[in-house]
Amino acid sequence: MKEKPGNGKNGNGPHEAATVSIVFQDNSLLPMLYGEGDTHLVKIEKKFNVSASSRGNVLALSGEKSAIEAGRAVLESLYADLKKGADVGSAEVDAAIRMIAGGEDGSTLFGGQEQIVVKTMRKTIKPYSPHQAQYIKALGGSELVFALGPAGTGKTYLAVAMAVSMFTSGRVEKIILSRPAVEAGEKLGFLPGDLKEKVDPYLRPLYDALYDMIPGEKLLRHMENGEIEVAPLAFMRGRTFSNSFVILDEAQNTTPTQMKMFLTRMGQGSRMVVTGDLSQTDLPKDVKSGLGDAVRKIEGIEGITCVRFSDADVVRHTLAAKIIQAYDEWDRKKKVEK
Fold first, then answer.
1. Considering the entire predicted model, what is its pTM?
2. Which of 8, 46, 116, 181 is the least crowded, having the fewest Cβ atoms under 10 Å away?
């Protein structure tokens, strides 16, 4: 990929109008880069307020200089992925825009030598937002990580990915995934089946993440021999986890006593990740969340990292982020009225 001088007025200031032409060497990749009906280009134009026009293997970007640089960085990161054989769809374009708009260097996060990725048995996972990049770094470097924020930001998925990565590379000997089996509007006693059948629906998202990263037969074998365990939080009492990667998901539904019990299970050579959304607590109204309580008390301790996600980090359908924003705005208005 080469850059050609544009025909427009090129200023030195970031807000001066300019035109830059980018030459892509491999024409066959351009339909995927631009998207069907140029939908990917349209997204980039709208986000950065630039104009894009293509002719052959040359793409011209026009607009303010800083906007052009951002648009070009997105295109370069996506083109680098395509050259490596990766798929580039709407989600990948949204991710690249989110990363560049958040001030990250696309060359290192997507196409460069020092990529921030997590490698599992089935796939290589990249960050889809600046906070996800921060989270992956924390997961790799801190012994205890708190991940706070709304659903759809990748808190649990990335934690499971790092657990699988460390397990397959021999850095830990076990993976332990847990959730508090709190009743969110339904009563466990009225559900059919034995105890395992009653609590499994609460743990299903953890199973889904594991199956996405480990082939089914291998996962079942690891679970049968106890190397990978998925269990309700109540089953953690009295144990010590050594050389393990331990994840407590939906931790906003723990009590302070349960949270203290869990955190003090950490043994030598272990990593712990605690994820949750403090705005989605299913505890009784008079019960304080153990997650918020723990963060307030221990966040400043060396070796503990807290990563806070926002609705801007939601990587599901774009409507999901808008729905979260609408709910948050409604809640803010209600608090002001009170």
1. 0.76
2. 46
